[in-house]
Design goal:
Number of strands: 11
Order of helices and strands: HEEHHHHEEEEEEEHEHEHHHH
Shape: rod-shaped
Strand content: 5-15%
Radius of gyration: 36 Å
Structural class: alpha+beta
Number of helices: 11
Strand order of the largest sheet: 3-4-5-6
Largest sheet: 4 strands, antiparallel
Helix content: 55-70%
Number of domains: 2
Amino acid sequence: MSLSSALSIAQSALLATSKQTSVVSRNVADASNPDYTRRIAVVTSTSPGARAVDIQRTANDLLFRQNLSALSAWSGQSALYNGMDQLDLSVNGVDNASSPSTAIANLQQALQLYATTPSNQNLGSSVIDAAKQVVNSLNSGTTAIQDFRTQTDSQISAAVSDLNSLLGQFQDANKAVISGTRSGTDVSDALDQRDALLKKIAEYVPVSTFTRGDNDMVITTKDGTTLFETVPRSVTFTPSSGYSAGTPGNTVYIDNVPLSAGTGDNTTADGKLAGMLKLRDGVAATMQSQLDEIARGLVTAFAETSSSQPNATGLFTWSGAPAIPAAGTLVNGLAGSIKVNAAMDPSAGGDPSLLRDGGANGAAYVVNTGGASYSDLLISYGNKLDQPMAFDSSAGITVASGVSDYAANAIGWFEGVRQQASTNAESKQALAARTAEALSNDTGVNVDQEMSLLLDLEHTYQASAHMMKTVSDMLDSLMAAVG
């Protein structure tokens, strides 16, 4: 081997070692970055004695896709669960203190007490006050639910804006990858940035990807709707200024295709957008329907009857009074419009004794035949609260029951759904964490391993430097001999 060849080999080795050291140092510097993928400096021979360094990423497409799917599932479930916590507190209060069920139980107690001493008008006024608490619970619950739906609408709008922004950033990163691939430069940083954006996008909608020539990536949703192909596809949503009971919300469109909200308590809604749609139009809407059915049951249970006239509203009335709502049929918004009959409300100039005697709708509805000690009507009202009646199955509770039991079942339904959502959120969070850990173990940086490589590279550098010194000494001796 000639001295010039030996010198060339030593120089090539030093250059390769320098590049390898730079790659390993970068790995150590970004060891704590969850979006950084470990680089490997692969040395290849290009000609006798010459070496080049090719930088490769330790990517794992299968684990990465599993992690994206787990992120979407967890994001959708956690959005549902967190929203339900807020909804429960707004409607039912702490420990269900402001729930209709608690208010109805207090009303029953007040009725029973009044029935024991029907001549005591103070007890009659207490029943009216308890009825007002029931009305307040239903009215405020309706307001809270519709405000919550409006608030969720705003959150959906903000999420759509964020998603469009992420898609715009993804376009820039994708262009950088394509350009670098075509020119043959290292695109590892651009690929890391693109993968990091994919993780963020997957939190909003479930994504599926495939890569074309020049590392050009296409993104679709899980159901095949194109989200990005060369340019971002439009994600649109029109928020509502306010909601009322029974009003459906607007949906999110991706490339003019509606986004599915998913079904079930263990929701199939992947991504926070679908989770919030499920929350707004599923859980909250069902909860409102249950409040409306409770209100309809109360109007029916306290209706006044007559042998010659149709049943008419009694203690509780509504916008359709004096008629009674149709049996077993949901009336949207009834919980928001129900109120105590002014004819029995002392604060409105009414007489509480009409609850004991009947006659809020005229003489044809008077039933008291026992004077001030008459309690049969009061007892019958208390009993009607526990007597099974028909409820609309669209409200999510199909078991036939009395109004008081239905109100309790509404709490049970919500708590069951929330518990299921909590359990599923925990399991999906665990899956997302496990897939992220597996991906990190496979493609992330192990500092101990990198430091060991640095030590090996140091020895390689020393050997190459020693070789260059030896060749230099030999060249000096040769030049001295020639001179």
